[in-house]
Amino acid sequence: xxxxxxxxxxxxxxxxxxxxxxxxxxxxxxxxxxxxxxxxxxxxxxxxxxxxxxxxxxxxxxxxxxxxxxxxxxxxxxxxxxxxxxxxxxxxxxxxxxxxxxxxxxxxxxxxxxxxxxxxxxxxxxxxxxxxxxxxxxxxxxxxxxxxxxxxxxxxxxxxxxxxxxxxxxxxxxxxxxxxxxxxxxxxxxxxxxxxxxxxxxxxxxxxxxxxxxxxxxxxxxxxxxxxxxxxxxxxxxxxxxxxxxxxxxxxxxxxxxxxxxxxxxxxx
Length: 269
Known about the structure:
By secondary structure, the protein is α+β, with helices and mostly antiparallel strands. The chain folds into 2 domains: 138 residues, no CATH class; 100 residues, no CATH class. 18% of the residues lie in helices and 35% in strands. The chain has 4 helices and 14 strands. The strands form 4 sheets. The protein has a 4-stranded antiparallel β-sheet. It has a 4-stranded mixed β-sheet with strand order 5-14-7-12. A hairpin with a 5-residue loop joins β3 and β4. It is globular and about 55 Å long.
């Protein structure tokens, strides 16, 4: 039967693995003003970092804010009070004039907001977890057609033979018309392999860690066929190997985990 395609695009600010322990709040840039209010249950979640370096969040669970701010997969957050998974908040936050809207700076401001307004205190531990390792699938180490090494257009030191990031998949991700079956799709532009591994976690339903050994940036577009229940767990392994030339291997590994020592509901303002 022919059905309209179902497409889910991974958010570009999707979490990446912890690289270091949180930086002390007094070394971070912070939002100049922030309004935080409880929101009605059942609202649609949204989190946006805007070009003027402000933040807008609707129906945001504190758990998701922490995962985003500290670049975590959900298995990397421990000792969560129940309310951080259940009580949503609306947040509007503005940065000082001239502040950078680049993602790293915005994430640091979100960390500072969590510490200042939610009294978040944490420490990091190493724990065992079931993961998938992202590895090269082919003996010749060749990548698939749907992943392309690229360079930023302002990187004068990069090899001229590489495409500029964003040039590999210029066509719209959502194409008009119909296809056989439904699918999930994700596109990454100008990201390291570690970010690709994280976005694959959404499909694999388990934390994916990069063990390809590949450096540099990549453009990638992956389409995962779905069954009637839109279950992608089985088909993602085939799609990753055929389209990307990569492989997901089940492993038991040590991963960094952020442990919550203290967190409080904010005073609405």
